[in-house]
Design brief:
Blueprint (H helix, E strand, L loop, with lengths): L12 E2 L11 H11 L1 H10 L8 E5 L5 H9 L4 E6 L2 H13 L6 E5 L13 E7 L8 H11 E12 L17 H16 L7 H7 L2 E14 L4 H18 L5 H11 L14 E13 L1
Parallel strand pairs: 1-4, 2-3, 2-5, 3-4, 5-6
Antiparallel strand pairs: 6-8, 7-8
Bound molecules: S-adenosylmethionine.
The site of S-adenosylmethionine has 21 residues, from helix 1 and helix 3.
Length: 290
């Protein structure tokens, strides 16, 4: 497959009759996630068992490029094909690539990975999918497609998250302690229905799809956010998304307390708190095409 320059209008390869995918505000959260968890993402990339390096990488569900840029850093010889359904995310990723002088090493492809047949991404040494596999409507089919696009001996890195990070201490906010846990319980109920593979154990599914799982690693993230403006904005954006998903199922008192936290003009705004942190887990599986 030809390398296409990201600055040209032709760079964004569109597959089929793909519709613009609505990602309302997700790009900012993904960028904040990448900024706040940069060390953790780099440490997963460093852990991958690829002693000879990787030259041809595909980042599936790349979003705004958290993994793409970490992998370019880890593998200096590599080119990355960054794939996502969202044209907006891909535009954003290309702008970042240009700003960093990395445009020659990245090609973006807009594609819906729920399609039965995937575009020809070319033969690949490493496929990376971070926080994207759980979105697949047919994970077994997607796993088989990944296996087919890997060169023999190629590696598939699946990275998944336990859920939205927690930002507030248990006793917060004053007057409605435990609010964040109740918000998470509400969104978890929705996820069970709409995103059933979030939090799944990918090991058995990888084996069933013909991979050998060479490693599994869970990273506990616990970052003190008391002095971080980015963590404040990350917490604000995440809770805004939780509100839009779960408002109807929260009690009136919880919703009022959540709205106070989200009101950036309020003295109770989450942006004014000095007790925030980021607590979550990421699990990575390194699977070899047999
Ligand atoms: C939670 S984000 C993760 C983004 C990125 N991998 C990261 O670690 O920051 C999930 C991404 O998967 C993409 N996605 C979800 N379903 C998809 C599909 N069927 N085909 C292609 N991309 C998809 C979304 O547009 C989004 O960018």
């Amino acid at each position: 497959m030809n390398h296409v320059h990201p600055n040209t209008p032709h760079h964004d390869v569109q597959q089929g009759r793909h519709q613009e995918h609505s990602t309302d505000g997700q790009a900012e959260i993904l960028d904040l996630d990448a900024e706040v968890l940069a060390e953790h993402i780099a440490s997963i990339a460093a852990w991958l068992p690829l002693n000879d390096g990787a030259r041809r990488i595909v980042d599936l569900g790349c979003g705004t490029g958290a993994g793409t840029f970490a992998l370019l850093d880890r593998f200096p010889e590599a080119h990355v094909t960054a794939v996502d359904a969202s044209a907006e995310h891909l535009r954003h990723l290309r702008a970042k690539a240009c700003a960093r002088g990395l445009e020659e090493r990245i090609r973006t492809v807009q594609a819906d990975l729920d399609d039965r047949d995937w575009p020809d991404f070319g033969t690949t040494d490493l496929v990376w999918a971070s926080a994207s596999m759980h979105h697949m409507a047919h994970p077994d089919r997607a796993l088989r497609n990944v296996r087919d696009l890997l060169a023999p001996g190629g590696l598939f890195a699946v990275v998944e998250l336990a859920g939205f990070p927690r930002f507030l201490p248990e006793g917060a906010p004053e007057g409605r302690p435990g609010l964040e846990a109740r918000c998470h319980a509400a969104t978890d109920r929705l996820h069970v229905e709409h995103v059933p593979h979030r939090g799944a154990d990918w090991g058995p599914m990888l084996i069933a799809a013909g991979f050998t799982v060479e490693g599994e690693r869970t990273i506990a993230v616990d970052i003190d956010g008391s002095h971080s403006e980015a963590i404040g904005r990350y917490a604000l954006g995440s809770l805004q998304r939780i509100r839009s998903a779960a408002a109807a199922t929260l009690s009136t008192d919880d919703l009022a307390a959540l709205d106070q936290l989200l009101d950036t003009a309020s003295p109770h705004s989450i942006l004014r708190r000095d007790d925030l942190g980021v607590r979550t887990e990421r699990t990575a599986w390194a699977a070899r095409r047999a």
